[in-house]
Amino acid sequence: MEHQAKAGQEAKPGQPQWLGVDRYSWYVLGVLVLVYFVNFIDRQLLTILAVDIKRDLSITDSQFGFLYGTAFGVFYALFGIPLGKLADRWSRVRLLTWGLTLWSAMTVFSGLSRNFTQLGLARVGVGVGEATAGPCAYSMLSDYFPPHRRATAVAIYSSGIYIGGGLALLLGTSISGAWDHAFLPGSRPFGFAGWQAAFLAVGLPGLLLAVWVRKLREPIRGFWESPRPAAPEPATWSAFVRDLGTIVPPFTMLAAARRGPMALAGNVLTLGAVVLAAMGLTAWLGDPVQWIAIGIGVYAVASWAVALRHNDGEAFKVIWATPSVVGLNIGYGLICVISYASSAFGPLYGMRVFGGDPGTVALIFGAGGAAGGALGVIAGGVLGDKVAESGQNSRRVLVVMGAFTVSLIPNLIMLTTQSITVAYLAVFPLWFCLSAALGSGSGVLVSIVPASVRATATAAFLLSATMIGLAMGPYAAGRISHAFDSLRIGLTGLLVVVPFALLALYISWRDLKRKEA
Description:
Strand content: under 5%
Shape: globular
Number of helices: 21
Distance between the termini: 43 Å
Low-confidence stretches: 1-14
Radius of gyration: 22 Å
Mean pLDDT: 86
Structural class: mainly alpha
Strand order of the largest sheet: 1-4
């Protein structure tokens, strides 16, 4: 059995510690931040290379939105559920190691892609690999850090999103520009363009990082819970395959058939309804690949919810029948519609709308967004921990709502100004506020769900963020931009989700407030 870490235990006199937590726990947090950092470099690199990729592969804004959001997001969401359950039963260190290896290899494959289809398949592979990161990291950190430090730890971990995303812009322009400057089109090694060299350069180091991650110690599961949950059943590949059957088509239909004729009939009816909806949306809007992928995701999530109710009543009750969790998941997912679209098209917006130089845009949107995001997510986590010191998690939700509301000010400034300088100045506060919502929101989640289903609940939280935010936000912005020939209109149109996000978060706050009372 994997060696259980002594780190994460109560601080004792003479034991190396910092802020009441032993130093090995902080060391693990540092490594996990580096993993998430690499995660978002690999994920975000596509955005700053958009102009060259769109030119070389002849793709539209909506197809680019599909590559950035849907191709990655749907499969990231779907595999996050069975991989989250696997993290609840198996070594999280080993699972994260395998996931890091897969998504790094798929990033390398992105650089080898020669057409839209190959790049789309590579993005799917990146999504599947990265689906291991959130459930494993959230669960491990919850066992390494006591409840009153969890939101801070998860927020520091989440800062890797913004540091990695920001550095991806700087690395992307630097590597791609240097490569294209050094080699003329007819003399490029292996015929690689600069954007392909950039993917190769950032993907290969991830394979080395996987070796480092494998050396981490597995923490004691549920260490801080009282009473401590029973040890999970040992993971088997047959159990993992059964979990795949609950959400990954076409295994979902086989899993439904095992539950009986009525379950199979319900699953087939759900599939039929989704197919009709996808056909209707394709006839209306075009982009069949987008709606096929979304249809797969919707059908899979519906199949998973029914299977979870049958197989794991406790997890179903937590994830699908608890207003505070459901409201948080939907509310944060709608926030992600705006944040992921801004992330996908922000650099292109600076270059296309304002005519900004790619290097300068990468510096401002990269460094400014990274600084704002990293500081904001930590501030949101720390503030969430501070206001909830007496166990009042409803106050954390208020931090999410407040940060999101304030983020609308710099967002509107950026979308309405005619000055590139003003737009640049709005980058830092925009990402500070948007990321503060994540810092506190993730702290709410890990604090209100039982340890026995924490990784699965985390996967559901990320599922909402990806299926609602990532799969729809960038595509919708690109589709509206394509229809009106205006990226400004494309991004502005997404603000329609704001009242619905605040309503969902209010439902979460009200449920927690009622329970606390």
